[in-house]
Specification:
Blueprint: H1 8-14, H2 31-49, H3 62-71, H4 89-101, H5 105-117, H6 119-126, H7 129-141, E1 144-149, E2 165-169, E3 172-183, E4 192-200, E5 209-216, E6 221-223, E7 236-240, E8 258-269, E9 273-274, H8 278-308, H9 313-316, E10 318-319, E11 322-323, H10 328-356, H11 363-388, H12 403-408, H13 416-446, H14 452-472, H15 485-512, H16 520-546, H17 549-567, H18 573-587
Parallel strand pairs: 1-4, 6-7
Antiparallel strand pairs: 2-3, 3-8, 4-5, 5-9, 7-8, 10-11
The chain binds flavin-adenine dinucleotide.
């Protein structure tokens, strides 16, 4: 893959030139990958029905993981030559959405951990030929699953503060340290683990980090519960569960295992070290991992909407003489859910295509992660739970049972407000680069060390760029051509707003200078405004391509919502009517996005008079 030179999103803000790339045409998925996904769903439904999918404490069974391995789900993205299916990012993400929509969000998300965060991503992108041949086949067949062991008690948001060390000892590295919150890292008798472990290598300098591929089997590990002193003579890979219930005290992703780890003189062959900067590799792997959060949300939101409509709880539940789905309030919730689903689909397609075209910048992945994780928490809590009423809290209800799962995405893979700041900082990079020579020249001039001509040149370069920015505001024709007039109108709004936002960003840079990094609220607000403008174009472009009435209506609702957030305007009756029309399409079964979404029985059904 050829890396692109600058991010499309940077171009959108600073020159407007990337806008048409926000609405990519997506190639049809490969039939082989579609078959893997369809077979995985069939197998999962069969295991759920025959009671073999989950154990007594609700964890996914090894039998289920083994079966998913056999269907090819865990190898879907691994190159064919190593036993996988060579799916691209888009195909993997579409699979995650479909499996989550079918009611298996954890099984879908596990592949994000395994493939993107874990060893396959590091091996495929940075491994040497021997490492690929050595480790990938077992990861493709599901004989081994993978995890990323990065977070530590002292290093979460600031991962660079981690303290685990790797010290060279002949043909091995000796690893010492501990990790926290690690999903999928506990091997069982049936399935081994291949961990991507991030550690410092102090002998190579204070900022040297590396990824080590660590293979573990159940027989190799020691289990020592948190709070218990690790005996001095214990060596190797130690699992440190934090809870008493076998669930390790973690509310989120409750169907999977998540635990602490400790390493005491763990010996890892030196050939298992991945070449290059391990911290950078970890951050890069977070990019597809962030799209996976969104892809999973796109699926789980389908499951939530399907709980309500069509022909579901919203129709069954009557209150004051009418099914609740006939009320304006519930219609507005149904419409908002449909809108969030279409927005998530649009972002999944755009972001995957960015990665598939070689963009490892990750800006688009940040938008995806923030949108997806906030959409699913709104969908679950404000829309789904509120509509389910008290039944939503019953054991076994898919919303009540998974509340922590629906919220946790806002924290893992980068907490959202921290990501908003990172997004803006990266977006500003081209402007910062342009300003650098001018500010250096000004400093030199103030010290009497510079000829006037040089500063005139750097000032002219900067002002020329600024003038181009200003001219952009007068551009009359849209660079994104859509068929649907209403969606085109939304795009026009965003296109007119982006140059203004670029000025707001420049003004903040000028006002706060080097201290802008400390003005976190300013960064967060600006970042979200830019993201909202971009999401409008991405969603409108996606829906327009489908030509589908309900999809277009859903995109229209999301664009209206985002525009109101950007302008501070209040919703009006025209908006209410648009929601009602969209909800009626959904309740009439015309929202094709719900195809394949799990149908959940009514909880505590009662005899209707
Ligand atoms: C369900 C789940 C699964 C996970 N799975 C894995 C895994 O498989 N592998 C792995 O390595 N890790 C995993 N993690 C860890 C996850 O990546 C971290 O929780 C995340 O990076 C945040 O780190 P932290 O929890 O230590 O938060 P902290 O670093 O303690 O931060 C707490 C909060 O403080 C605020 N904050 C932090 N720094 C700043 C700052 N500079 N300015 C302002 N505010 C700040 C933010 O709001 C932040 O959320 C998982 C976490 C969860 C919840």
């Amino acid at each position: 893959m050829k890396p692109v030179k600058s991010s499309v999103l940077q171009q959108c803000l600073w020159s407007g030139s990337g806008l048409s790339e926000l609405c990519p045409t997506i190639a049809a998925a490969n039939p082989d990958t579609e078959a893997v996904i369809a077979n995985s769903i069939t197998a999962l439904i069969a295991m759920k029905n025959d009671g073999t999918a989950y154990d007594q404490i609700g964890k996914i069974t090894d039998h289920s993981l083994k079966t998913l391995g056999a269907t090819g789900w865990f190898g879907i993205s691994i190159p064919r030559e190593f036993g996988g299916c060579s799916a691209n990012t888009h195909e993997l993400m579409l699979g995650i959405t479909k499996i989550a929509a079918a009611g298996f969000a954890t099984e879908a998300g596990l592949n994000g951990i395994h493939t993107d965060l874990g060893a396959p991503d590091k091996l495929i992108h940075h491994g040497n030929q021997w490492q690929k041949a050595q480790f990938l086949p077992a990861l493709a067949s599901g004989e081994r699953l993978s995890a990323l062991a990065a977070t530590e008690p002292c290093a979460g948001t600031n991962l660079a503060a981690l303290e685990t060390t790797a010290q060279r000892d002949g043909e091995h590295y000796i690893i010492n340290g501990s990790k926290l919150f690690i999903g999928n890292a506990w091997p069982s008798e049936l399935i081994g683990r291949t961990i991507a472990l991030l550690a410092r290598v102090p002998e190579e300098g204070p900022d040297s980090y590396a990824i080590f591929i660590v293979e573990v089997l159940a027989k190799d590990i020691k289990v020592i519960p948190a709070g218990t002193e690790i005996p001095a003579d214990t060596e190797g890979y130690i699992v440190v569960p934090h809870g008493k219930d076998g669930g390790h005290g973690f509310h989120a992703i409750r169907q999977a295992r998540n635990t602490g780890l400790a390493f005491r003189n763990l010996r890892v062959p030196a050939v298992n070290r991945i070449e290059g900067n391990g911290l950078k590799h970890t951050y890069e792997g977070l990019n597809p991992g962030r799209i996976a959060v969104l892809a999973n949300a796109a699926g789980a939101m389908r499951m939530i909407l399907r709980l309500i409509a069509p022909n579901a709880w919203g129709k069954y539940r009557e209150s004051f003489g009418k099914p609740i789905e006939e009320r304006e309030l519930i219609k507005t919730r149904i419409a908002r859910l449909a809108a969030l689903i279409v927005g998530a689909d649009a972002l999944r397609n755009f972001c995957s295509s960015q990665l598939d075209s070689g963009d490892r910048f990750g800006l688009s992945c940040i938008i995806a992660k923030i949108f997806g994780s906030e959409a699913i928490s709104e969908a679950a809590i404000d829309l789904g739970l509120m509509t389910a009423g008290g039944r939503g809290f019953l054991h076994g209800h898919p919303i009540g049972d998974n509340l922590a799962d629906f919220l946790a995405g806002r924290i893992y893979d980068g907490q959202n407000d921290m990501l908003r700041q990172k997004f803006l900082a990266e977006l500003m990079a081209p402007h910062v680069e342009l300003l650098k020579p001018l500010s250096q020249d000004m400093k030199a001039l103030s010290k009497g060390r510079l000829a006037g001509l040089r500063i005139v040149k750097s000032a002219a370069a900067y002002l020329g760029w600024k003038a181009k920015q200003t001219l952009r505001s007068f551009k009359l024709r849209s660079s994104v051509k859509l068929n649907h007039a209403g969606l085109q109108e939304h795009v026009k709004f965003a296109e007119a707003l982006l140059p203004k936002l670029s000025k707001e960003v420049s003004a903040a840079m000028m006002k706060h200078g080097a201290k802008l990094g400390d003005r976190q609220n300013v960064l967060i607000r600006l970042s979200q405004r830019v993201q909202d403008a971009l999401i409008i174009v991405i969603t409108a472009g996606h829906a327009d391509k489908t030509g589908d009435e309900a999809t277009i209506a859903a995109a229209d609702i999301l664009c209206r919502d985002l525009r109101r957030r950007l302008t501070g305007a209040a919703a009006d009756e025209c908006y209410d009517r648009a929601c009602v029309r969209l909800a009626e399409l959904v309740t009439a079964g015309k929202f094709s996005e719900l195809e394949g979404a799990a149908e959940t029985p009514i909880f505590r059904a009662y005899e209707k008079k």
